[in-house]
Known about the structure:
Elements: E1 2-4, H1 9-12, H2 17-48, H3 60-63, E2 65-67, E3 71-73, E4 76-78, E5 81-83, H4 88-93, H5 103-111, H6 113-125
Antiparallel strand pairs: 1-4, 2-5, 3-4
Amino acid sequence: MRIDVKESKGLKKKINEQEFKKCLKAAITETALDTLNKVIFSQNALIYNTPQGKYKRTGNLKRSNSITPPRLQGNLITSEIKNSTRYWSYVNFGTSKQTAKPFVQTAIRLAQPSKSIAQNFLKLYN
């Protein structure tokens, strides 16, 4: 998720830039946590709460989800949702032997991160 601070100049007139960035970081953190919860929800719905296939379910995919704290890079404040397993993309996109379980796309559709960041920012700002 990325928001360019320069694109939000109208709101900076009401608060100073430091307060604006602090509030924006908090909004991004809240949105990232919500999106991470949607990733786990999607993994449960599409993988863990379905009949087991030929592979052994270890729970590693679900346990390996994480987010990075928001960081400022120039005018960008970023936070990333990560999965440290090497096979997450095979599960998400599928292979020739396994159908796709699109938990990433489902989570993004459920969370609507860019809309949520704006809503969380306004909630924290007001």
